[in-house]
Amino acid sequence: MLDVILVGFMGTGKTTVGEVLAANFRRPQIDLDAEIVAAAGKSIKQIFADSGETAFRQLETQVLQQAFAKSGILSTGGGVVESAANRKLLQQTSIPVIYLQTGPAAIFDRLKGDDGRPLVQQLGQAGLRDLWQRRAPLYQSVATHTVTTDARTPLQVSQQIQQLLSQEVVIHEI
Ligand SMILES: Nc1ncnc2c1ncn2[C@@H]1O[C@H](COP(=O)(O)OP(=O)(O)O)[C@@H](O)[C@H]1O
Ligand SMILES: O=C(O)C1=C[C@@H](OP(=O)(O)O)[C@@H](O)[C@H](O)C1
Ligand SMILES: [Mg+2]
């Protein structure tokens, strides 16, 4: 069974924090982007270039569905909430869904030199901000908890998630 699912915009730290949590809990990390790359046999940039975003989203939904049969820490990609079917899966699960929330300025700062995210290049800073505004309520709609990351290191974010998860267990035990 999955322990926790991380959602949030690009650059909020889902992959990095997922790695820390996986190491701390001694659990596997499942990163949807890595699963997509493995399934397609090419990079995300190349999938977007060869087949377009729609094809990428289809693969993303497939690997999300498959991930629910696995164990560990699930790091999603920022666009996973674009699909209503994906949102339904995330809303219906009993697994905690943590929204890593970071403001657009900090996100752009983290990603401006990044070459692996096609949408960062396509949209630029203003376009990313618009996408952030449009997606923010979608992340809220699937999340059981929200953790802000602007002024926190990945280690601090992980510690806060661990604290939330330990409270979660206590609540279930009561
Ligand atoms: N809390 C944080 N503070 C500062 N930089 C961060 C933080 N979390 C992640 N980063 C950096 O932001 C970039 C994107 O992180 P990543 O984990 O790939 O995000 P995501 O998977 O959400 O897109 C990386 O360079 C990472 O080191
Ligand atoms: O937000 C998005 O639409 C995307 C986010 C990326 O994952 P990260 O959120 O891990 O960067 C990756 O799936 C792809 O570049 C598209
Ligand atoms: Mg990631």
UniProtKB/TrEMBL annotation:
It holds the Pfam family SKI. ATP binds at residues 11-16, 117, 152. GO terms for molecular function: ATP binding; magnesium ion binding; shikimate kinase activity. GO terms for biological process: amino acid biosynthetic process; aromatic amino acid family biosynthetic process; chorismate biosynthetic process. It is found in: Cytoplasm. It is an enzyme of class 2 (transferase). Its cofactor is Mg(2+). Its EC number is 2.7.1.71. Binds 1 Mg(2+) ion per subunit. It catalyses: shikimate + ATP = 3-phosphoshikimate + ADP + H(+). The keyword Heme does not apply. Keywords: Amino-acid biosynthesis, Aromatic amino acid biosynthesis, ATP-binding, Cytoplasm, Kinase, Magnesium, Metal-binding, Nucleotide-binding, Transferase. Its main location: cytoplasm. Mg(2+) binds at residue 15. GO terms for cellular component: cytosol. InterPro entries: P-loop_NTPase (IPR027417), Shikimate/glucono_kinase (IPR031322), Shikimate_kinase/TSH1 (IPR000623), Shikimate_kinase_CS (IPR023000). Substrate binds at residues 33, 57, 78, 135. Pathway: Metabolic intermediate biosynthesis; chorismate biosynthesis; chorismate from D-erythrose 4-phosphate and phosphoenolpyruvate: step 5/7. Monomer. Catalyzes the specific phosphorylation of the 3-hydroxyl group of shikimic acid using ATP as a cosubstrate. Belongs to the shikimate kinase family. PANTHER family: SHIKIMATE KINASE (PTHR21087), SHIKIMATE KINASE 1, CHLOROPLASTIC (PTHR21087:SF16). This is Shikimate kinase. It comes from Loigolactobacillus coryniformis subsp. torquens DSM 20004 = KCTC 3535. The gene is aroK.
